[in-house]
Amino acid sequence: MPIRELVLVNDPRLRAQAAPVEQFSAELARLAQDMLDTMHAHHGVGLAGPQIGVMRRIFVAHIPAPESEEEEPLHPRAGETFVFVNPQITRRAPETVEGEEGCLSIPGWRGLVSRPAWVEVAAHTTGGEAFSLTADGLLARIIQHEMDHLDGILYPDHITERDKLWPIETEGEPPPVELPTKPPAV
Ligand code: NI
User: Which positions are annotated as active-site residues?
Assistant: First the structure.
């Protein structure tokens, strides 16, 4: 279960379009496991193919379960592991909500991003089985953030106000991050 090297911001691979997965194979299941291991090693809640240099439409997600019974779960589906292959958003909420995001490919930064409050997603498992899922809250945010990665979009692309993107304490200098000069088309 190797942990893969992360692709970091300003690498052109994070700006490229990922291609659909065509082979549903044991190799794809191993890739998903590597992605989950890499995500957990970096304490992330989601990871998309391009973030490890795999230019395919696949992402994984996992919201940590509470560590004790007293702790409130971050989401009703906390503790579940999700793998989405060739995902498509089939419906989205008309209303947006603002929430905090970070990205394993953009260490040292956090931002406030407005996104639809819920989404319905159709996708496949690594075995090629179709499924759909409706998600709200943190899971909806993760799904939309990861799906953006498959189209070369990073969360700061959604932020136009400087005070909605801020550096956090990390080892070393945070990498430079550009804000868009105009809001992206939705
Ligand atoms: Ni990300």
Answer: 146
